[in-house]
Amino acid sequence: MLILAGCQSADADRDLLRVGLAQMPITIDPRFATDAASVRVQDFLHRGLLKLDASFNVEGDLAESWEHPRPLLWRFRLRQGVTFSDGSQVTAGDVAATLRAVINPALVSPLKAGFAAIDHIDVDDDYSLSIHLSRADASLLSRLNLGILPASIAGAPHNAHQTNGCGAYKLALWNENGITLERREEAESVARIRFSSVKDPVTRVLKLTRGELDFVQNDLPPHLLPYIRDQKQLTVQTRPSTTFAYIGLNLQDKMLDDVRVRRALALALDREKLKSALFSDLPVLAETVLTTSHWASSQLPAVAFNLNEAERLLDAAGFPRGENGIRFTLNYRTSTDPTRLRLATAIAGMWEMAGIKVSIESLEWGGFYARIKRGDFQVFSLSWVGIADPDIYRWILHTEMWPPKGANRGRYSNPEVDGWLEAAAAGESQSERKALYARVQQQMLKDMVYIPLWYDPVIAVSGARIQGFEPMPDGNLRGLMNISFATEED
């Protein structure tokens, strides 16, 4: 009987793809997703009006066509026959209800600021709607990949663990063992996907090696790569990514409100040594959020390691070394992820060479991210994941984007930059917008709003069963929907 039960269990898991995550999603509600894990999982559950292709160009998803007859008007025509996981049809009313909910102040969606240009939405018929703007917004289309919910729940309060989406998969189970999704239509291979939290990267790799997991991506310390590559049953794929790693600073803090201190912190970091020692030299050094291949990116001078200049700036800012050699102490918040802790420890060591004592505070992901989102920190390190829209600069720099409205968590404020961002968001000409974003990026670096680190690599590791996965620059996992499982003969 035990043997029979084991065989039945193996058969049941044959079409189950087991994915290991460093941390679980915070929510599967598309109106509230801002963390990377939530966005990754929601790709399987939800669809938006539009989506971005591999080159970050807009293409249709729920919308089969759209037009822009006037600067403040967009019209969309929906595909017919698309359904939610409960079987109900996706209509223009559902799209309108979802967008209205996000811009409704009562819901307090963290995505509200991204849709602030919407004045009102008209449902023209069951499959047509018009979006009327109060001001021009050149980036609106790239944000219309927001997952659409049925009108019946679109205005309801946040429900992190339940949803009704129109994506390829539906939620089957969310419990202490992870999140299980089921394919809504018959699939040749990946009928079910289970996302499990395995915080420790060594444990994650061991589970891959033993066949308890089929796939992991990122959140792997590169020092494990030689071991992984030695495992013949595992396949490692790496490529440059669009994920921008940075150090966040509280510009309202009495220690950090002087740009000379912020610049000194940047100059005291030997980024080449950090990426070589901690990340097998895989990252590409960055000076701004967007990669150099993006049309809105600007060529900026590198922030080169210069400890002597860092010390001079700290002296000039009024922070001389004390008798014990310490100038002042900073609190550095990070998550409990081992890679993040190693990075924080290495950065702290470099800053201490400049006379800055660093107190590292590591928190579980949920508590850490909640504090960062509300601006409760002196210093932290994080990454902006898969950024494609240059309007990210407005989201993280504009004075109106201080928490909880947006992600200007360091509370930077520069009226001139605000004006450039507003003009860029409203511009119809790409060349005009590029020139404005160049000014923004130059001023951002001059004011050292964030300390740039690098663009993280995409590191995907597949078990023996997986065939056909290709990692994407923005780190999305949508390619897992189309992989195939190897047979025993393979």
UniProtKB/TrEMBL annotation:
Cellular-component GO terms for this entry: ATP-binding cassette (ABC) transporter complex; outer membrane-bounded periplasmic space
Top-rank taxon, per record: Bacteria
Coiled coil location: none
Domain Solute-binding protein family: 58-393
Single GO term (MF): peptide transmembrane transporter activity
GO biological process: peptide transport
PANTHER family documented for this protein: PERIPLASMIC BINDING COMPONENT OF ABC TRANSPORTER
Name this polypeptide is given: Peptide/nickel transport system substrate-binding protein
